[in-house]
Each structure stands twice: as structure tokens, then as C-alpha cells.
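Hi Y.,

Following your request, here is the sequence exactly as I used it, all 176 residues.
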Amino acid sequence: MIKKKHIKNKEEINWEEKVIQVKRVTKVVKGGKKLSFRAILVIGNNEGQIGVGVGKANDVIGAVKKGVSDAKKNIINIPITKSYSIPHPIYGIAGAAKIILKPSATGSGVIAGGSSRIVLELAGIKNILAKQLGSNNTLNNARAALNALQNLRTFTQTADSRNISLSDLYQVSNEI
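Below is the corresponding structure, written out as C-alpha cells. Let me know if you'd prefer a different format.
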């Protein structure tokens, strides 16, 4: 069910793609039922770039190709710490699916389930805790993980948005 493939992009970056789910869907039309396939894919380079895509076609190969092109259109950059984790705990939402992501100690690995695990692994995160809440929908859980990763901020980004220096940010957090 899960395929791995290395493909080259225009920038000569090695993108790794994984098919999360291939679903056979039917549509009732005048002459009977029309059969098609829906593929959910994640594409990432293990260096902080990740995208989720969906493709629908009459055959599986066409659905996967459309999913790859959709995922490439929705690529985001995420900050990764030196310990291959995330800078701070975060909460992500997509539809009814919610996900909690927490940074973890070095060597703990990716502790996550379902589609969120694949998203985190392809993003290049190696130490993280994740919990999916609210929904078992594969696509929404993958999008919730992407939403959480998109909202991550580094200390320098936070200091810039507050118009203070990085050292002042650390002093404020130590006083509390």
C-alpha cells in the first residue's frame, strides 16, 4: 500500500514520495456506476520541506501522478532543530481532525500513528511525539499535521515579530 520513490525536481532536489492511501470511489450516474480512484500522497525531502496532495483519476497510476503534482504545489518549509525535532509544542486542525505535536528527546524516534507519522518522517523530523484526536480520516489527519508544522516558529522569528532582540526574548522567558 505504501510505495517509495525518488524523483528529481527542477532544482535537482531528491524528493521522496509515499502513497498514504489509494481508495476506490464510485459515482452513480445515469448508466450505472462510474468507478475511479483517489490517491493521497506525501512528498518530502527529509530537510524540512513537505507537501500533501490528492489525485483522482480513472486509474491508480493517473491518480498517483496527479497527487504528486498537487503535493508539489502545496510544499511548505518547516524549522527543524539540531536534534531533528520541532522548536515548541503545537496544535494543528484540519476539518474535524486535530493533532498535538510535542518535541521529544534525542533518540526517542517518531512516536506517531497513521498518516501523521508519514508526514513527520518525510519532513525530516526524527524525534517527536504526536497524538491524533477527533477523526480517523487519513487525509484530514495528514492536513492537520501539515497545518501544525506550518504554524511552527523559531526563536528568531518570534523575537522579530515582537520587535525585541533574541537575548531579550531569552531573559523574559527565564524570569517567568
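The chain has five helices and nine strands.

Thanks again,
Q.
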